[in-house]
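$ ./design --mode recover --in tokens.txt
reading tokens...
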């Protein structure tokens, strides 16, 4: 009986939270705007990148822009930096 009451109370709390604040916070909106500033649908963009190897698994590396192929990858053995052009 206690488990059922706990489940009902938790479900009600989650439901009320979802109803009351479905908008993005100011911080989340400013982050989206900052990320969108570098978008250029009309042509190529220049990205700061690092020379690195692609990691063998997700736990052994860091997400970054990799100069080889100008791709966002999980990498390790990170060395010098440069720029690349993304189309």
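writing sequence...
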């Amino acid at each position: 009986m206690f488990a059922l009451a706990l489940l009902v109370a938790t479900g009600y709390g989650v439901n009320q939270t979802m109803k009351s604040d479905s908008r993005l916070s100011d911080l989340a909106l400013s982050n989206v705007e900052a990320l969108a500033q570098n978008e250029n649908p009309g042509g190529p963009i220049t990205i700061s990148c690092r020379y690195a190897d692609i990691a063998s698994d997700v736990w052994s590396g860091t997400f970054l822009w990799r100069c080889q192929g100008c791709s966002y990858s999980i990498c390790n053995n990170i060395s010098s930096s440069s720029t690349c052009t993304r189309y």
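exit 0
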